[in-house]
UniProtKB/TrEMBL annotation, chain A:
Species per Swiss-Prot/TrEMBL record: Longimycelium tulufanense
Name this polypeptide is given: Uncharacterized protein
Domain of life: Bacteria
UniProtKB/TrEMBL annotation, chain B:
Domain of life: Bacteria
Positions of transmembrane segments: 21-45, 51-71, 83-103
Phylogenetic classification of the source organism: Bacteria, Bacillati, Actinomycetota, Actinomycetes, Pseudonocardiales
Keyword Metal-binding set for record: no
Coiled-coil intervals: none
Protein name: PrsW family intramembrane metalloprotease
Classification via InterPro entries: PrsW (IPR026898)
Region (Disordered): 283-321
GO molecular function: peptidase activity
Species per Swiss-Prot/TrEMBL record: Longimycelium tulufanense
Residue ranges, compositional bias (Basic residues): 303-315
Entry keyword set: Membrane, Transmembrane, Transmembrane helix
Length: 179, 321
């Protein structure tokens, strides 16, 4: 090998891999904010849909990720709750099937099975499904066709999320579609 | 058009230097980028949402062809080797994207933790993108330099390689956006991918190409400039001080060097190498065509210092034309 080319090449590798490691490490070392009692969260879709969620039942969970203003992920232990807003849903059933495909893409050993319809106390129609596989859980997709809809997904290893099922359902029931 | 000092541009010899560690570092990082990114973000979505792939393919092929033609036309006097241009493109497409994706997620989450949802929504991408993506695309230019620095003779060459890194990044980033748009859309893959693709073509169609071109221009300047007036030498002199990026070594004529050959730190005399940490690390320095060769007349370096404030200028000291 050519003399003097090793160190700069090593520097290139280190500078590149640092970008793979350092931000993740720094992020992991900073504690995520915790949902406080009475916390309300507004989520907005780029195409105009907006919801306001009452997260009081999930007080104590940590806000671990956001995807813009569109979705929010909370976590406690190894269980997660994801809330997202979507505009212009023409057919809830189609959205359910597409959502199941997306979950399959991110978690290859998880299948989503539709278990039935769901109607919130305010009369919003929706669908309910279950996640089965290496992670289990529930998914709710709620909204009127042609308008703004929202989805709430609770999942985790078996045995780690079931006790929060009622809390999550309470969140689903109290979400307001504001736009 | 060519001149006696023009480096031959064709052939894969420009890229294939298996005796240089830089080539293997490049290969390793491309493989790492593909491993972290290629399967989960490219192959699987292509299989699941082929409509998004086709929506991406047609306009981005046109984009890539047009930009490659423009980039290649920038330098009217010397065409960069195709193999190195492809190498820069591939770096941007796979290494930079693959390594940036987890960093972007982590930094956006970090900013959200520290500042709150409103700030991260408004400013997160503007802060994270340059931090991770420009860094990684800039490293692509350095990777090309480590593979074959003799083809970076002027700042413009750095701009060309940087632009190719940015173009590769842009094209593959557009694909990920198309996939995300398709998967997030509640109604149709094509609708989601088309909406996102149109938006990305309307705002910032050449943004990455431009940004990385500027980064490459700066790196090209740092590598090729010969002005060693900054930082100033320490009082008393007698010790070589690195120029910008340590790249302005006193260049001495070596009888066995053909015209236009790359000059390396190892070519410099020992006293000139002292203190040149970057150069000792092997970043090559090339004497630009037409630049007079400095002859070191004494132990100090004043005799070899070039004109203050200029790039490729005639030095004060004794020169041989």
């Amino acid at each position: 090998m050519e003399r003097g080319t090793f160190l700069p090449a090593l520097g290139l590798v280190i500078a590149s891999v640092a970008m793979l490691v350092v931000p993740v490490w720094v992020n992991a070392s900073v504690a995520a904010p915790v949902v406080e009692p009475g916390h309300r969260e507004t989520l907005t879709d780029p195409y105009g849909g907006q919801i306001v969620g009452e997260l009081d039942p999930l007080a104590g969970w940590q806000v671990t990720a956001r995807s813009g203003a569109r979705s929010l992920t909370l976590a406690r232990d190894r269980a997660t709750v994801t809330i997202k807003v979507v505009s212009n849903v023409t057919d809830l059933e189609r959205w359910f099937n597409r959502q199941a495909r997306t979950i399959l893409l991110s978690e290859r050993e998880v299948n989503v099975c539709r278990t039935g319809d769901y109607v919130t106390p305010t009369g919003l129609p929706g669908l309910h499904g279950e996640l089965r596989g290496s992670r289990t859980g529930e998914i709710y997709l709620v909204g009127r066709p042609g308008g703004t809809a929202y989805g709430v997904q609770l999942s985790g290893p078996p045995g780690q999320w079931e006790h929060t099922r009622d809390d999550v359902r309470q969140v689903v029931d109290t979400v307001e579609v504001t736009q | 058009m060519s001149s006696p000092a023009t480096v031959p541009s064709s052939s894969t010899h420009a890229f294939w230097h298996p005796r240089r560690w830089g080539l293997w570092a490049y290969v390793l990082l491309i493989a790492l980028g593909l491993f972290t990114f290629g399967f989960s973000s490219l192959l699987v979505p292509t299989a699941i949402a082929p409509g998004a792939f086709w929506v991406w393919l047609v306009p981005n092929t046109v984009l890539a062809v047009v930009f490659v033609l423009v980039i290649r036309a920038l330098d009217a006097f010397e065409k960069e080797p195709g193999a190195l241009l492809v190498a820069a493109f591939v770096w941007g497409a796979f290494a930079a994207t693959g390594l940036a994706i987890s960093a972007n997620d982590a930094l956006l989450t970090l900013i959200g933790k520290v500042t709150g949802p409103q700030f991260v929504t408004a400013w997160g991408p503007a802060l994270v993108g340059p931090t991770t993506e420009e860094w990684l695309k800039g490293l692509g230019v350095i990777a090309v330099l480590l593979i074959s620095a003799k083809h970076v003779q002027r700042p413009l060459d750095g701009l060309i390689y940087g632009a190719m890194c940015g173009l590769g990044f842009q094209v593959v980033e557009n694909l990920t956006y198309a996939f995300n748009g398709a998967l997030e859309n509640p109604n149709s893959d094509v609708e989601g991918a088309l909406g996102v693709t149109l938006i990305r073509f309307m705002i910032g169609v050449g943004s990455h190409t431009l940004y990385s071109g500027i980064v490459g221009l700066g790196l090209g300047y740092a590598i090729t400039q010969t002005d060693r007036s900054w930082p100033p030498p320490p009082p008393g002199g007698g010790r070589a001080v690195p120029g910008r990026l340590g790249c302005a070594l006193p260049v001495e004529r070596r009888g066995d060097r053909p015209a236009g050959h790359a000059w390396r730190a190892a070519d410099a005399p020992p006293q000139a190498r002292r203190g040149h940490r970057v150069l000792r690390a092997g970043l090559p320095v090339r004497r630009p065509p037409g630049l007079p060769v400095v002859r070191r007349d004494g132990p100090g370096r004043a005799a070899g210092r070039h004109h203050r404030g200029g790039g490729h200028r005639t030095p004060h000291a004794a020169v041989t034309p």
